[in-house]
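Lecture 7, part 2: worked example. A protein chain together with 1,6-di-O-phosphono-alpha-D-glucopyranose.
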Amino acid sequence: MIKGFIFDLDGVITDTAELHYEAWKKLSDEMGWHFDRELNEKLRGISRMDSIKVIMDHNHVSLADDVIVELATKKNDIYVNSLESMTPDDYLPGAKELLTHLRQEGFLVALGSASKNAIKVLQQLKAMHYFDVIGDGNSVAKSKPAPDIFLYASEKLKLQPSNCVVFEDAEKGIDAAIAGGFHSVGIGPEERVGHAELRFNTMKEATYFEVRSFFSDFF
Ligand code: G16
Ligand code: MG
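Predicted complex, written out as structure tokens:
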């Protein structure tokens, strides 16, 4: 029986990928590192520290741990500043409608994001009231593809993973949902999230009606 829904943030509820890209690009330019949109794709859904390591590996750079933390903090300051321009108009099309519908139908709803800035993003969107539980980058130590963030969210909702549907746009996010025994919905292309149980190209197609009909055996 499906009783709860767990949403990833970036790429599902709103598109912060562009703001992350601009912040990493600024840091990379200052450091003389190569960074482009293709490399940015590899950062989808992974933590800040994992992200900087991917960029450094790509550039064959190695630095002391404290310097890496300092640089990741610098990127974060740029990113957090850019969040000031985010408004309630910045939901991905369809996301607000689905959240509203799920609440009307009485489902429990949680956030399961890798971002340590998730609360700030939800506040900018005025989306806090949709969530019973917030699982973010501060909630667990192991990030996706480990299932920990989704297990944290389902535990707080007091639900078994098999009673929850995870919405994710990242390959590693779907890996995490499967590893935790959750139902999964992928948002994005087949080559990225084709391993999800159900897939939509965008959140616009992910209506309550579509989701409900697909999982009808479990409602
Ligand atoms: C998001 C983004 C990732 C980002 C991560 C950590 O994850 O998709 O690119 O690296 O958050 O963000 P922060 O630096 O704000 O802690 P999600 O899980 O919401 O898709
Ligand atoms: Mg995401």
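Strands lie at 4-7, 108-112, 133-135, 164-168, 183-187, 198-200. The pocket of 1,6-di-O-phosphono-alpha-D-glucopyranose (ligand 1) is lined by residues 8-11, 20, 43-48, 51, 76, 113-117, 137, 170 (CB under 6 Å). Keep this in mind for problem set question 3.
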